[in-house]
Amino acid sequence: MLKTKVLPLMRARHHSLQLVHSRIELILYRVRLTALILSALMLAWVPLDLTFLAWNDVKGVVFARVIASLTLGCMIFYKPRSLTPALAARLMAVMLTIPLVFFFYVNSTLVTITWSKDIQFIKSSYAHFPILIAMMLSLFPLTAVEGIAFSMGITTVTIFSLLIHTSPDYMLVDLGTIWIQLVVTALSVVAAMSQLHFMSGFIEFSTRDDMTKCLKRDFGMTLLDTLLATHARKKHPLTIFFIDLDHFKRVNDTFGHDIGDQVLFNAAEAMRTALRKQDSVIRWGGEEFLVILPDTAMKDVGPILERLEINGFGQLPDGEIQTGSMGIAEVIEDLTGTSSELVKLADDRMYKAKRGGGNAIVTKTSRSPLVPALGLTPNSETIP
Predict the structure, then answer these.
(1) CA-to-CA distance for 227 and 20, rounded, in angstroms?
(2) For the domain bounded by 217-382, which CATH number is listed?
(3) Which is deepest, 7, 117, 128, 318, by most CB within 10 Å?
(4) What gap in Å lies between CA 116 and CA 114, rounded to an integer?
(5) What are phi and psi of 128, to 5 degrees?
(6) For residue 294, what are the β-bridge partners?
(7) What is the pLDDT of residues 321-345, one digit of tens each?
């Protein structure tokens, strides 16, 4: 419970790979949407400033609004080459910093104005601007650490603006207002964490196979496409396993379909146990599985295969070890350009393992047993 439900709400390093990618895309989308709204609002307020304030008093504010609006507009059309958590965090920080810098500048610029009752609403709007910025946090799926970090930045700028005597912030904001802002900020962080919790649960429900708890095929292929694009830009390796459980029809015929379902779950669990946190298991269909190993070259899969060698893919009711046929492909070594090419190559090698009697691992250059203790295939054989 703590590991799967609470820790992911605290820090992003506890997120699954699919949550990481989905959250990045949502944050970038909402950064663009929020930047669009703020950019429009920045310009929409200009007529009010020009109507109720003297030009000499407000010209700096008008220019600041235009600059802020243009800067936010640039964020709407920015298209990053790669999507990473760090990039999403930086873009969100920039999006929040622009209105904060504007707020601080305005409060230092309007210190010379004599505020009559007719223009109190303008003074109030500028003074309470940080509350609006704090509320924007609720639009994003954030962890507790991220929410606290952004909140501290907003609160710090607000407190510093209070040091400027005769500014709108100084004249209107008292301890009660600061307390209200802290409460609004805290509620916004809680709302952001609630979004993250809902998003995590929705991804878990919509992307997982009910029986095996592996990723579904369609989402798995989307994830593979995303990873391949990222790895191609960085020239990083990526390896996949295509696995087919041996003699699974015999399992269903001998023990029944309920036991067959349990065997599938046990096989998936054996894979998850052998893999690392960053790896993903996809149920391809029936008794076939696809495993994605990011940042992993062919030479680095040894420790994972060694963990599978001991018990294979779980135990059958009669005590026998469930074996499988595995094809392995790696994007750099095999010079593949697309996910479909990479999967087909691993699939073809899996069928070579299957035709040789099963319980085998086939790579570009070799064939070896998955569970050596069973001795169903030669100990090592070069593929011509």
Answers:
(1) 12
(2) 3.30.70.270
(3) 128
(4) 6
(5) -100, 15
(6) 238
(7) 999 999 999 999 998 889 999 999 9
